[in-house]
Arginine biosynthesis bifunctional protein ArgJ
Amino acid sequence: MGEGHYEVIEGGSIITPKGFFAGGVHCGLKKTDRHDIGIIRCEVPAVAAAVYTTNAFQAAPLKVTRESLQDGRLQAVVVNSGNANACTGQQGEADAYEMRAQAARHLGVAEQDVAVASTGVIGELLKMDCVSAGIEALPARLGSTPQSAEDFSQAILTTDLVKKEICVTVDVNGKKVVIAGAAKGSGMIHPNMATMLAFMTTDAVIEQPALQVLMRQATDSTFNMITVDGDTSTNDILIAMASGMASNDVLNEDHPDWEAFAAGFTYVCQVLAQAIARDGEGATKLVEVSVNGAVSDLSARAIAKTVVGSSLVKSAVFGADANWGRIIAAVGRAGEPVNPESVDIRLGDISVLEASRPVIFDEDAALVYLKGDTVRIVVDLHHGEGKATAWGCDLTYDYVRINAAYRT
């Protein structure tokens, strides 16, 4: 077992937990022939929870999913990429409800037990003839094979270069409980809930309120600690479903193995969050910023996100420039308490600032380090016990190229 008594399942996927099936097809929403609509289905109505974007302009699918989740249960999620169905008025809302109704009918489940999610271009109506054809074709493609999981993972991608998935197992009162996740996200990433789209499955028996609390806690330290470009999507959602087929004693905060389960759940969120940051549009490097010695964890989170989200810091990392001045400037503008005389900064193991004073360092060694595919920046404030880590990516020419022509 790994840290927190969880173990990564190599080759595991969103359908590794007992009771889950998935699939994806190409229905014509994307201009390429990549899959663009997918479904996750559980054998039984599953205990479910979700968190949503804080953007004031929330896409129509979020309204539908909130309604479906009122009783804390779901049996299926239908997801399309290529079109966000956001800012589409009453017609967009009607289309989202129609997606739910069609998915329920073709899957043979209750309409109220289906969630809907969409991602892609904002402000365009869905091509419902394509969506309907895709939903009708999906039940025949549902399965529990590696290809089925692959089809779903591909169906939720937009500008992503790679799929994002992770699966772990945890011992809960002597039984193997599996937790898995799949996500998409590459641009418009500055979550204030979760990420662009993320889905988690588990076969644990768990109380719904406990799952909802755990999801929010895990989100705060993982998905809410990543940024690619400082923009929060209209469609961000994280959904978790628990089939209960592991037959463990019911999990809640008082269960003796709750800490182990929570650690595994949080690890899945963290791996997905890091994968999204690494796959930022045009990115060449994952940037990790750890802040120690803040007045509180909340303060450390704010400072870490300010540093990792700084366009100047991101540009310096892209150029492999050990310009620590941009880092200290971001720390100072985060709006959190700091002692201007006590800050240390390291690039990996290379110390560049001690007690807020520059130190002589090997520029060539720093250049070699910054040219790697992962750059870790450590800031020690020596001002308290708070700590946090945030993840992001460098800012490249390709980011501008991709987003200058997103609709075309």
